[in-house]
């Protein structure tokens, strides 16, 4: 069973939703047969990396909320994070995330994608580190087990893994995702949003009950097949 | 809709099945929304490339068939090919195909996979060209639009796209494929064997009727989602 999770590094519900999903997965009997793949989604598509841009100022400018509304929003999301044992600093930064997704694709090739995503979430939300900056990204990635020089090389080359990021985003659109987190099980069942853990457990159980591939036509009289042993000839 | 086709370059039912599938696809109303991906499967896993090994001698040695049995087999498969307008020479060669699959993965990255697979089938089955040989492979690939130097570089480096070939083969095993061609629609419906065209049309219609993703839980009260416009906070 394969779960694909579209998310963005600066999306608080992705951060909270990942923890909730993992709790839901832990309660699923078939958890050992589940492969998790993280896929790219930029909330602000094509936005550049930008140093020192505070989330608070961005939210106020973008949605016209005042300080009191902003505080109330942040308190609700902070409480949801705290309920999962996650930190959420209100003085965190905002940035375009295309380059971060490129590095996450490098990490995927190295088998370190999940660890790097956790580390980026932690750095961004719990520690309010400036994840727009090369040195910070390299430091976080190295802490997750990646080779620092390799990360610098990817950051310096705009084209590295760029197609992989765009391919993920194209697939999200094709699957009907308009926001994140977006969870897809076996390309068959979708869960949208950072739902409670038990919703994920139920979705996994539903996918397991639905079974794997449905055979429309097996090799036989009309359709021949070759195996290592022989090519049947009807 | 996405159709993945596991096949091997030296598998006659893959060659015939591809033509039948394409005929079935052409009769499917939703054909414009279908993406086709070719995946690797070696009939003789790990076998090296080998020059000048005739299929006839291999079949006789491997299955103990005599000349008359061999002729009868080849006539049946040749008739099935001819019915699809495809040539089938009985003096064709056999070879390990790992390197050919590696080049097919290069072609996939260049958007030329389908063209290269057609060209390899044509060269192998209809023209009995020695597809074990570097110069022949490069010539065929260049004819399909690939850069000859790039193909030579991939052939010379055993590790290039090797993981991609093995990943395809691992997935085939996980999906229960024991022979090829093996067609999978949206990771949900399987057709095994080079079935008649109408079987493929029906399978595509069945997959279309089954619809796309089934939403288990939509973003709402319990599960929040971030979009480009806002992060909902429940």
Low-confidence stretches of chain A: none
Q: Give the CA-CA distance, first to last residue of chain A.
A: 34 Å
CATH architecture of chain A: 3-Layer(aba) Sandwich
Helix-and-strand structural type of chain A: alpha+beta
Order of helices and strands of chain A: EHEEHHEHHHHHEEHE
Number of helical regions of chain A: 9
Main β-sheet description of chain A: 4 strands, mixed
User: From the alpha-carbon coordinates, what is the Rg of chain A to the nearest angstrom?
Assistant: 21 Å
Largest interface (CB < 8 Å): A-B, 59 and 59 residues
Mean pLDDT of chain A: 92
- Global outline of chain A: globular
CATH superfamily of chain A: Glutaredoxin
Largest sheet: spatial strand order of chain A: 2-1-5-6
Pfam family, one (chains A, B): DSBA
Protein name (chains A, B): DsbA family oxidoreductase
InterPro entries (chains A, B): DSBA-like_thioredoxin_dom (IPR001853), Thioredoxin-like_sf (IPR036249)
Organism (chains A, B): Streptomyces synnematoformans
General description of the model:
2 copies of one chain form a homodimer. Chain A has one domain (2-227): 3-Layer(aba) Sandwich (Glutaredoxin). The first copy, chain A, is built from 9 helices and 7 strands, in the order E-H-E-E-H-H-E-H-H-H-H-H-E-E-H-E. Chain A has helices spanning 12-26, 55-63, 67-83, 98-109, 113-126, 134-143, 148-156, 162-174, 197-210; strands at residues 2-7, 35-40, 53-54, 93-94, 182-185, 189-192, 214-217. The first copy, chain A, starts with a strand and ends in a 17-residue tail after the last strand. At the A-B interface, helix 1, helix 3, strand 5, strand 6 and helix 9 of A face helix 1, helix 3, strand 5, strand 6 and helix 9 of B. Strand 7 (214-217) of chain A pairs parallel with strand 6 (189-192) of chain B.
